[in-house]
Amino acid sequence: MNRGFTLIEVLVALVLVAVALVAGLKAAGTLTSNAERLDAVLAAQWCAENQLADLRLMRQYPGTGESEFRCQQLGREYLGRQIVRATPNPNFRRVDAVISDADGTQRLTLSTILARY
Question: Which listed CATH number (3.40.630.30, 3.30.1300.30, 3.40.1010.20, 3.90.740.10) goes with 7-115?
Answer without folding.
Answer: 3.30.1300.30
